[in-house]
Amino acid sequence: MALIFRVLDGRRHLGLIAASEGYRRLKAAQRQRDGIAATHLLIETTRPARIVAYCQLSIAQLYLHQWREKDRARLSVHPVPVLRIDRIAVARPEKGKGHGRLLLGHAVNVALSLRGPLGVRAVIVDAHSASLAAFYGSFGFHPVANEATTRYLPMGFNDSRLVPD
User: How confident is the model at residue 19 (pLDDT cuts 50, 70, 90)?
Assistant: First the structure.
């Protein structure tokens, strides 16, 4: 099965996201419709209407005091632009196949592409469980100061851990 990433375009896939897995996907569809976030789909090349997984991305900011001391070098005292992963979701039959890792790598690539044009300096995500915190930690994400669940990945990291095997 060959997979590709596509940014959600208008209403083409919006109904598919809203119709599956209830409330969370409905919220994702609403955020996309309202222009608050962009939804990146992982789809099969032979069945483009089938969403294997998706991630939703938006722009956010971190303040200097929220970074670890060693990551503060050359950062402004003003809020620093970051890419927020609002949601990563994998279809139930596709779980355990490495799609979450693929989505995370895709999000990092998007963030890297925005570093020059928008000054994005990190990727942030909320890890609402110990297993999610461990998952993101295995890729180098660090806790944000004064935020119990938020983790960040500074852009100066070694991203070789995100390349699929």
Answer: very low
Task: Record the tokens describing residue 13, joined without a space.
Answer: 């896939």
| 106: Cβ contacts below 8 Å, ≥ 6 apart | 5, 40, 42, 55
SS (H, E, C) the chain: CCEEEEECCCCCCHHHHHHCCCHHHHHHHHHHHCCCCEEEEEEECCCCCCEEEEEEEEEEEECHHHCCHHHCCCCCCCCEEEEEEEEEEECHHHCCCCHHHHHHHHHHHHHHHHHHHHCCCEEEEECCCHHHHHHHHCCCCEECCCCCCEEEEECCCCHHHHCCC
pLDDT > 60? residue 23: no
Comparing 26-30, 97-101, 143-147, 159-163, the range with the smallest average pLDDT is: 159-163
CA proximity to 94, closest of 131, 50, 128, 126:
50
Was domain 3-162 assigned CATH 3.40.630.30? yes
